[in-house]
Amino acid sequence: MFNKIPTVLRPQEIIDKAFSRASKIEVPYESTLERRVRNEVISRVSTIESLTCNYLDKLVKRFPSSEKLHPFFYAILDLLFDIDRYKISLSRLNTSSNKIRELSTVYIRRVKGIDGKRINQTMREFYGRFSSIINDLSGDLSYLSECRDRMKKVPDINPEIQTFIIAGMPNTGKSSLISALTTSKPRIASYPFTTQDIHVGYRQIGYQSVQMIDTPGILDRPSSERNEMEVKALLALQKIDGVILFLFDHSPEATYEMEHQENLYHEIKQMMSKPIVRVQSKLDISPGRMEEIAVSVSTGEGISELLKYMESILAKTYAR
Ligand SMILES: Nc1nc2c(ncn2[C@@H]2O[C@H](COP(=O)(O)OP(=O)(O)OP(=O)(O)O)[C@@H](O)[C@H]2O)c(=O)[nH]1
Ligand SMILES: [Mg+2]
Question: pTM of the full predicted structure?
Fold first, then answer.
């Protein structure tokens, strides 16, 4: 979604492109030199206009409009840059594109009406005014270029499809479970403000396509250990409609005691305000079945039951 935004050129690059294209224009034979010059200039002005306006319009169109963003992406972009400034910059591009169109109309009309000796001077005047409109966009273009770089790093999550978010303390088996449940190799996306990558896997459950997200570094720690940005990153995740599978490791190998795991569970349950399901992991090495849903990725035990359970949750959660 954010990968289709064209490169944002600097003002001088936009100007150079337009002028160089315009300078290549040669009008074929005309009965007089004056007619030729006049037609050439008209053609140059209109080429500069169409090339530049098309480019500016394309930028405005391809940068997603903040009003149309899914709340998840809005929340993420809000962390990455100033959305108000982004909006203003895009609207300035739009205004400038309109100004250039008006300017070209005015100058073409002028060139058609004036004395032959003044044609070149009028053209230079147009070039000057055109350049100054583009140069005025300098700050906006560089800001949008920065936004574009940041947008490229936004995780490639589809907030429209049904989602399971895997949570649990470190080492509880989240990544192993997502690999076991999803068909393809999970896609990797970076997530702002965390050092680790997000893993996104897909599969069919019943007739539905389901997305599963493993968010290392986000849903695996109590808030007290998160900085402000990480808390915001977590809250962005809240905007995705979905169900949380919270993994509990009851095995003797568990890195964290049950008390810690429970604390995180309650905290996430509160913060995320979405359905949350307790899932026991590593059943094969656990002293027994301690949760209603228990699985082992190693032996495959419980996996098909978990999938059935997920299917029933989907039916309940999305049957609106
Ligand atoms: N015996 C057994 N080991 C498991 C099972 N699931 C995961 N493990 C092991 O537990 C360890 C942690 O698994 P991961 O899937 O990396 O856990 P994680 O929650 O993604 O860990 P972090 O990303 O570090 O938070 C690995 O050594 C796995 O091989 C299981 O069902 N049975
Ligand atoms: Mg992991």
Answer: 0.83
